[in-house]
Amino acid sequence: MTLMLPKRSDGPAKPGGASRRARDVGCAIAILVCAEVLCLTSVAAQGGAGQGDQNPAVSEATPAGWPDVTNTGPPKDLVLKPSGELVVTEPGTVISGVDVRGSVYIKASNVTLMNCRVMSSGFAVVDIAPHVSGAVVQNCLIDGTGAAFDGTGNQGIQGQGTFRNNNIFNVENGITLLGHNSVIVGNYIHDLRAGGTPHYDGIQIDGGIENVEIRHNTIINVHGSASAVMIDNYFGPISNITVEDNLFAGGSFTIYSDASFTTHPIVGVSINNNRIAPGRYGATYFKNNLPIYRGNRTDGALLIRRLNLGPTDMVLK
């Protein structure tokens, strides 16, 4: 079943908060790494297609270009059809070209959400039920609105599935995994913000998870706390997590693999060939487990300066 295909023209709570833990047109972020603190300062942007637009023309993210505002989200020339909250219960449904004001709840298997804008201050902007398999969220703009009180705007995407080429912002956590067998590729996760006492993570994997691929994403956390990627054993064991060829910045430590919460093991974590702008205290925090860690470089700040990050007013001083 396909819904609303228009024509082209021109998660679980954790201690310390509700989860685990706008913009001026024509701005970009200049990045300095100084005294082990990632400092992100807004400066006037110069040149570049789609500057100052969260919804530019899109192409598939490729190894030749890091995800940013130019190659994530729906196509700029796609006219989106307005909609309220969506609850999807029919397997195989395809939702494309919709401007959703409210959350999308996916409660059936093999559902695809693509080329959409979804704006919600609910707990999760896109919420995939734990029993669901085969969900795909692709080329969507996902806005959690930076909600003003705790328990809202927490997760950009919550659940499990294939998440590709999305532009995710104004949330506490960009993607929170709740099930096995997920692929996270080509996403741009940035401008994390939420009400209450947020514990910001770009991607959050809190245990009871296996078989995850995290590849060629751009994740920027300017807050100097939490992470770009959080892997921990809070809710169960972890196995077979691949983190490769990503561009990460910020957090307290940028990448965590922390098996100190419970006795559940973390095994099979591989973190290779990533480009990192280290967080407040460093690039990695590994405890009670030994991830494979090869070919990673701490030159991420230089690469981020070359991206078209779109409008932003997020500043860490």
Task: Give a short synopsis of this structure.
The protein is mostly beta strands. 2% of the residues lie in helices and 41% in strands. The termini are far apart.
Question: Can you walk through the features of this model?
Answer:
There is one protein chain. This protein has 317 residues and is mainly β. It has a single domain (26-304), classed as Pectate Lyase C-like (3 Solenoid), CATH 2.160.20. Helices cover 2% and strands 41% of the residues. The chain contains one helix and 30 strands. It has one helix at 300-304, and strands at residues 2-3, 27-34, 37-44, 81-83, 86-88, 94-96, 98-101, 104-106, 112-114, 117-119, 124-128, 136-138, 141-143, 155-159, 162-164, 167-169, 173-177, 182-185, 188-189, 201-205, 209-215, 218-221, 227-232, 238-244, 247-250, 253-258, 266-272, 275-277, 282-287, 292-294. The strands form four sheets. The chain has a ten-stranded parallel sheet with strand order 1-6-9-12-15-18-21-24-27-30, with no helix packed on it. The radius of gyration is 18 Å and the shape is globular. The model is unreliable at 1-63 and 313-317 (pLDDT under 50).
Set down the secondary structure blueprint.
Blueprint: E1 2-3, E2 27-34, E3 37-44, E4 81-83, E5 86-88, E6 94-96, E7 98-101, E8 104-106, E9 112-114, E10 117-119, E11 124-128, E12 136-138, E13 141-143, E14 155-159, E15 162-164, E16 167-169, E17 173-177, E18 182-185, E19 188-189, E20 201-205, E21 209-215, E22 218-221, E23 227-232, E24 238-244, E25 247-250, E26 253-258, E27 266-272, E28 275-277, E29 282-287, E30 292-294, H1 300-304
